Recover the amino acids of this structure.
């Protein structure tokens, strides 16, 4: 998973929290529509099947899970919006109202990439999403400081682009470390509350703000907060009917970690889909607001400006009139879980398999002006990076999504400035390395 731009931004988000949860007449009516779901989870959720090398997967663990279970096309291609809309309640127990904005923006991103309409011939508001991978287009649906993905311009000293589409266990663990979660059995920490998730959110912003190429980091809190609401909805402690056991939800970390890392439903850990009577748009926005307003234990260093704000203007949908500037997508075979969810190996073995896969996926193509020896020099000598930045000057300012909405013209200028600055820094690195006899 930004923007007028902020993809998952729902208007109620961040205006303040109303009482949690509430059951509107709409929700009651909606729940009745799904009384027909089978109590047999094998029937309701389908069987897990890892994606093949020619299948398409994207930056959204929810969509990837639905594809891995065959609730939408298993190859992740040519996805009808109606099928997506039905698959989320069936798989996760989330009410349709909670994914309306996401659906709209998936269509807009599809049309950005395709250059023409993605609407169906029926002209009834439905559309065909070309594939899941295109949702990795930077700073549209995809966004920086994800809970489980690298940023598009991370590992910036090497030039090139990073795998911002597929699951990365190291990125996921940086968040889990904040609350002391490890994959021990049983885990030392079972669940995370609002305060702990706010700690995780800020830690991810801090880390990525430091890791990304100067001028490329895009601070984008609204979709992160909605994703937080989705995570709580997908993993709160529940009875067999999907209703909350407690009055205030907490995210069960073992379920969350399994779901993201395996991109499969954690049924073998006792999980069942939530009730759509609980897991709806109001749930997501209420949880998001509660997390945002929760006092944090401590503030990490190098936070972007405004990271600790507690209110935000309601972001709009992605603009439809002017196509977004598109950037090259990361290319590799889709991520597949290191082990079958039905036969998970030891935590150590699993970490080894994930690390091997991620090292391969993160291999970067260097610009022609930068040789591998320069990349090694940059990695080994941070002083070279600092010297190059001093020569290049300060990075261009980034648009602050906390204060105003973004328009496409501004975005194009912003991306052009970031690209120019990156080229300048890489040129300075190359020059300095040459002077030192490395090229």
């Amino acid at each position: 998973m930004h923007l007028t731009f902020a993809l998952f931004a729902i208007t109620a988000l961040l205006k303040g929290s109303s009482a949690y949860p509430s059951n509107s007449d709409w929700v009651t009516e909606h729940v009745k529509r799904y009384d027909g779901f089978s109590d047999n989870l094998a029937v309701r959720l389908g069987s897990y099947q890892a994606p093949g090398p020619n299948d398409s997967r994207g930056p959204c663990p929810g969509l990837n899970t639905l594809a891995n279970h065959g609730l939408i096309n298993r190859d992740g291609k040519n996805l009808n919006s109606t099928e997506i809309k039905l698959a989320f309640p069936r798989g996760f127990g989330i009410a349709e109202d909670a994914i309306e904005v996401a659906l709209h923006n998936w269509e807009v991103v599809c049309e950005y990439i395709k250059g023409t309409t993605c609407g169906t011939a029926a002209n009834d508001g439905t559309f065909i999403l070309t594939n899941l991978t295109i949702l990795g287009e930077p700073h549209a649906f995809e966004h920086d400081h994800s809970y489980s993905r690298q940023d598009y311009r991370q590992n910036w000293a090497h030039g090139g682009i990073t795998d911002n589409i597929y699951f990365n266990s190291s990125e996921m663990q940086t968040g889990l470390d904040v609350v002391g979660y490890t994959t021990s059995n049983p885990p030392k920490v079972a669940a995370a509350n609002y305060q702990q998730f706010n700690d995780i959110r800020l830690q991810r912003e801090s880390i990525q703000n430091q890791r990304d190429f100067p001028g490329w980091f895009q601070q984008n809190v609204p979709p992160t907060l909605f994703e937080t609401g989705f995570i709580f909805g997908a993993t709160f402690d529940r009875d067999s009917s999907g209703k909350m056991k407690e009055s205030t939800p907490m995210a069960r970390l073992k379920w969350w970690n399994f779901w993201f890392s395996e991109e499969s439903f954690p049924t073998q850990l006792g999980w069942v889909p939530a009730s759509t009577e609980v897991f709806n748009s109001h749930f997501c926005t209420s949880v998001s607001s509660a997390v945002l307003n929760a006092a944090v234990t401590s503030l990490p260093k190098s936070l972007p400006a405004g990271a600790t704000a507690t209110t935000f203007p309601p972001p709009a949908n992605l603009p439809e009139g002017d196509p977004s500037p598109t950037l090259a997508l990361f290319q590799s075979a889709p991520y597949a879980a290191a082990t079958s969810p039905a036969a998970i190996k030891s935590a150590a073995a699993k970490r080894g398999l994930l690390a091997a896969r991620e090292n391969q996926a993160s291999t970067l193509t260097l610009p022609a002006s930068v040789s591998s020896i320069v990349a090694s020099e940059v990695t080994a000598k941070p002083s070279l990076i600092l010297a190059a930045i001093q020569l290049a000057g300060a990075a261009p300012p980034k648009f602050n999504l906390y204060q105003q909405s973004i328009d496409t013209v501004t975005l194009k200028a912003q991306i052009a400035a970031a690209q120019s600055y990156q080229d300048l820094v890489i040129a300075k690195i190359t020059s300095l390395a040459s002077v030192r006899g490395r090229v």
About this structure: The longest helix spans residues 408-435. The chain has one domain: 25-363. Confidence is low (pLDDT under 50) at residues 1-35, 342-347, 356-375, 400-404.
